[in-house]
Amino acid sequence: MRQALARVIDPEIRRPITELDMVPRVRAQGDRVDIDLRLTIVGCPAASAIERDVRAAASGVDGVGEVAVDVGVMDAATRDALIARLRGDRPTGHPFTADSLTRIIAVTSGKGGVGKSTLTANLAVALAGRGLRVGLIDADVFGFSIPGLLGIADAKPTQVGGLIMPPRAHGVAVISIGMFVDARTAVSWRGPMLHRTVQQFLTDVHFGDLDVLLLDMPPGTGDVAISAGQLLPHAEVLVVTTPQQAAADVAERSGLVARQTGQTVIGVVENMAGLAQPDGSVLELFGSGGGAETAARLEVPLLAQIPLSIALREGGDAGEPIVLRPGDAAGDAITRLAGELAARGRGLAGRKLGLSPR
Ligand SMILES: Nc1ncnc2c1ncn2[C@@H]1O[C@H](COP(=O)(O)OP(=O)(O)OP(=O)(O)O)[C@@H](O)[C@H]1O
């Protein structure tokens, strides 16, 4: 029976419920089994799903006829012990240190409106589509748009003790300041507060084991970029720009600030590149060359050119990332970029190599 129940996964914490001390007692009498199920918090949104899965798992065991589930909430001591275990042995600090196995990719741009958030959301979904465990932090605290782009504009994270469970969308675990403030509230915090937000997202959000953590950075070179640089000096950075030559200056600057904090700029993505017309010509609404120019100045490769695309924009507005529907030139370019990033693997930046002198 325990083995069967171990296959029931808490959808938010994403571990077997038996590992989470959620099943303190199981009694079998004849063909009847009584299961005590203890949820982490009162009003747990996943309660009915977990209870259903427990019933299904127990009913599947040979010889079981009747299943009775007593649903309650775990006591404070058990919950505190669980939270301590989930946090691991790090009372302070975040788990995404240089020698963690998670690859961190911060997506930045010199100015707003270049499609950085749209690209980040689609990239996250495309990476998750390749089977990677992906987390996404919307660090664009003033202009958060990730929840809407992923179709979870109204999602509110569950909090267990001081631990925040990130809502999931299209296979990606997502956290955004937009989940904690009213959508119409303007965020006007000063530096130290912003620093704490990024730090809290890194420390108190239970992402579990991740292959990739993406950060959608605010445009420009402000406090959040500097905080993120201090907290994640080993992060890799993608710089997004448009084809406009004038955009190259500010894009270059955002890459340089990242570099000053020790982060590694891995490449440039040019978004809003030429739009193919029905007659075969290409409409270069924003000119051309900005991506190549930025890449040359930062001495990194131009990793992708994402064309203007109505479907990409519509997918963002609808919360259905375009990468889920192959066939659009922009979506396909982002999917290719995800493939390339996954294939390149993580650089060795900041990582202990584990080599010892003989
Ligand atoms: N390749 C594209 N083709 C057409 N529209 C696009 C493309 N990329 C982004 N957009 C649209 O441009 C607008 C700005 O995009 P987005 O919000 O992603 O930019 P951003 O750089 O993250 O801006 P900010 O940092 O100011 O939030 C959105 O309406 C988005 O749908």
UniProtKB/TrEMBL annotation:
Key words of the record: ATP-binding, Hydrolase, Iron, Iron-sulfur, Metal-binding, Nucleotide-binding
GO molecular function: ATP binding
Pfam families, sorted: FeS_assembly_P, ParA
Keyword DNA repair among UniProt keywords: no
Start and end residues of each MIP18 family-like domain: 2-69
Annotated ATP binding sites: G110, K111, G112, G113, V114, G115, K116, S117
CDD domains membership: Mrp_NBP35 (cd02037)
Superkingdom per UniProt: Bacteria
Positions in coiled-coil regions: none
Gene3D superfamilies tied to this protein: Fe-S cluster assembly (FSCA), P-loop containing nucleotide triphosphate hydrolases
UniProt cross-references to InterPro entries, sorted A to Z: FSCA_dom_sf, MIP18-like, Mrp/NBP35_ATP-bd, NUBPL-like, P-loop_NTPase, YlxH/NBP35
HAMAP family in the cross-refs: Mrp_NBP35
PANTHER family per UniProt: IRON-SULFUR PROTEIN NUBPL
Subunit note: Homodimer.
Annotated function: Binds and transfers iron-sulfur (Fe-S) clusters to target apoproteins. Can hydrolyze ATP.
Family: Belongs to the Mrp/NBP35 ATP-binding proteins family.
Protein name: Iron-sulfur cluster carrier protein
Taxonomic source organism: Microcella humidisoli
